[in-house]
Amino acid sequence: MAVRGTPSWLGDQNAATALRLLLDHGPLSRNGIGERSGLSKPTAAQMVARLEEKGLIEVVGEESIGRGPSAALYGVRNDLAYGVAVNVDQDGVRSGLVDLKGSAHPVASEAASGMSADRSAARDVAGAVLSACESAGVGLAAIRHVCVGVPSSVDPRSDELSSVQALPGWSRKSIRHQLEAALGCEVQVDNDVNLAAVAERRAAAFEPGATVALLWVGYGIGLAVDVAGTVLHGASGGAGEIGNLPVPRGVLGPDTDAADLEGLLGAAALDRIGREAGFPDHLFERVLGGETLPGPVLEVYAPRLAQSVIPVLGVLDPDLVVFGGPVGRAGGARLAELTRTAIRNHTRWDPAVRVTSVEDDAVLGGARAVLGDRLRETLLARASGTAAEEDRSRIIAAKLRGIS
Predict the structure, then answer these.
(1) Distance (Å, rounded) from C-alpha 116 to C-alpha 354?
(2) Would the pLDDT of 399 be above 70?
(3) How far apart, in whole angstroms, are the C-alpha atoms of residue 95 and residue 129?
(4) What is the DSSP code (8-state) at residue 240?
(5) What angle is formed at CA 218 by the lines to CA 213 and CA 224, rounded to 5 degrees?
(6) What percent of the chain has pLDDT over 90?
(7) Each residue of 293-306: pLDDT tens digit?
(8) CB under 8 Å to 146, separation ≥6 — which residues?
């Protein structure tokens, strides 16, 4: 590593500046790098040469500059490092490859019903990585980072999951440590709703400083809070775990016997409301299949959902409340409208409420965004000389194959 303040160190910093420009703006010529960086043409040429020596860029085309010879266009190599986004939940495991360019890669999926009884965190995630690589046609040796979304909070202090109820065979203890030891690469494990909130900001046109509360309604209910682009995790990773909040007594009538918000709004509650409204059994299962919620069900469900939003308004007073998850999507704009009306009729608040803007798997989308940033950091560290690329390709590939 170069000593700070020396010519070698300065050269590395200039190289990192050039790489950042290429990542932000796409292919550029030496002149283009010089113009955007404000540095001289000779310095820009040195920056390009340094990046070529490090194996971080390649010629990707030419740029016409008038009557003279065309100038080479340089772009960041896309094959140096990849990540794999993984979403593990009650339905199974889904995964997809992530590269520096943000290319669209196929999603590999395996239903929980078809998975082996001998499950574990390592087997589930390793299998997901293998499937993602196979679907994208990329070798295992290039994988450097994995981001896993799970239906549980993750304590950053103890590296422990709060619950493995939806994760058969998983251990709560040392989750990141056990996955990194098994896979041989960097692994980040995060709550699924927190990752969905990352995807929400990327997909929607929020004001930079906005506070957004994402209420995820699915098998249970969860909350993620985004403050100016930063998702709040809390000291123990449990920020947003509102499912265990008690249901206010005397608000919804004597026929409501749920003890907490999970019992009031979860999958079993939705099925019961559907039956009482005269609709077929297994309404939640039909929602998972893409069906919308019928109006009579929404009329009953929305006042209940309002009871989960009110505490969020009282504590955070966010600029916007977003409904996500399969039930939030199935309820659509009508659920948002009815919930807002219920809140306005019984409290002093009149929040802005809308349905998620993320059309695909929001948890995978958030994991992809996290990995895209991490891959960028990895290459910039290599360009600036603050990190050396350790040859772990054989280790990673062997461990993944061994686990699977």
Answers:
(1) 39
(2) no
(3) 7
(4) T
(5) 20
(6) 78
(7) 999 999 999 999 99
(8) 83, 84, 85, 86, 125, 129, 179, 183, 185, 186, 187, 188, 371
CA distance 86 to 181: 17
Mean pLDDT of the chain: 91
The dihedral region occupied by 72, where left means phi > 0, alpha psi between -120 and 50, and beta the remainder, is: beta
Eight-state DSSP code of residue 28: B
Would the pTM of this model clear 0.85, i.e. be above it?
yes
Q: How many helices (H) and strands (E) does the chain have?
A: 13, 14
Q: Are strands 186-191 and 143-150 parallel, antiparallel or unpaired?
A: parallel
Tell me: pLDDT of 233 over 90. yes
Q: What SS3 class is residue 389?
A: coil
Rounded CA gap, 161 and 163, in Å?
Answer: 5
371/394 Cα distance (integer angstroms): 22
Both tokens assigned to 80: 């140096």
Residue 336: what pLDDT? Answer: 98
Strand pairing report for 82-89 and 143-150: parallel
Query: Residues 335-352, buried b or exposed e (16+ Cβ, 10 A)?
Result: bbebbbebbeeeeebebe
Q: What is the pLDDT of residue 387?
A: 60
What is the CA 107 to chain-centroid distance, rounded?
14
